[in-house]
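Section 5.1 Outputs to date
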Amino acid sequence: MPHPFPAIAVALTLTACAAVPIIAFPTERPQPQSPAEIAYITDILNTLQPRSIAENREYCGYLGLSPAGDFAISPPKRGSKAGCRPDEPSAELRVLASYHTHAAYAVQYDSEVPSFEDLEADIEEGVDGYIATPGGRIWFNDADAAQATMVCGLTCITADPNFRPEPDSRVLNSYLLDGLWDRQNYTGQ
């Protein structure tokens, strides 16, 4: 699929490559997404969420299958207030998706939806992704479909006690990549 914003894709790729090489994963998932996968990653994100909020830092890593076929994650890596690049997973982990939190609530960030860069990075890496928001939502980035879909809404996992829904910031149930671009540029994020 051609990138809707080719100059941005090149700039993002060059920036990412200069700092840390992008990890390339097989385009085929080892298994389709399942309710068990969603339940597992929901528990993981709910466990990470209080620390992410308290420290106002994103945490990230990879979700996959262990050699025994059980769900497992790579160790969570502490990121910044507005970003996180996971360490390369062990060779034993058959990667299904990335995961990350969006840190504590801050008015200046439109953090209740995945950012354009969140979905773009998953597409470039060729891996799906899960994102937890300060309001307690979980999103699923489908890299092949270039679409972010809400898995569960407000407070389905631990939410930042300081979180306040923004009255002018309606959250849809799903966004395509260009929809996230439009939202990000409309909100000035």
